[in-house]
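Bug #77: duplicate submission created two jobs. Keeping one. Sequence:
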Amino acid sequence: MPDTGPPPAGATPGEPEGKGTEAPAGPTEDERTWALASHVGSFLAAYVFLGLLCPLIVLLTKGRESAFVREHAVESLNFQITAALAGVICTILFVVIVGFFLLAVVGVTYVVLVLMATVAASRGRIYRYPLSIRFVR
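Kept job's structure:
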């Protein structure tokens, strides 16, 4: 059995290496609140087809102050644009009846993904929407 030697400075014995080093500070409570607002606000505004406004406002007002808030606002904005395009396509497909089914699928997917992003923001984590087209970087 190889000798692992003494633990690194600052680590306690029996703790995996790297645990004793200082972790970078996570987002503040205010940053998490603004990141959460970019998702929840778009969810609430989507019922009047203005889901793009909330993440855009958060991006323009707080995006320069915090990389964490900017990341969430950009993700939410890109997803809102993608969801709006999907809604328009489904509406066009109403002509061939399949649009009704697709719009229901888009609606349920929208709710689930926005809730997942909101939970990630409240926990201080970055969230990437799947199937989202990256219009804004």
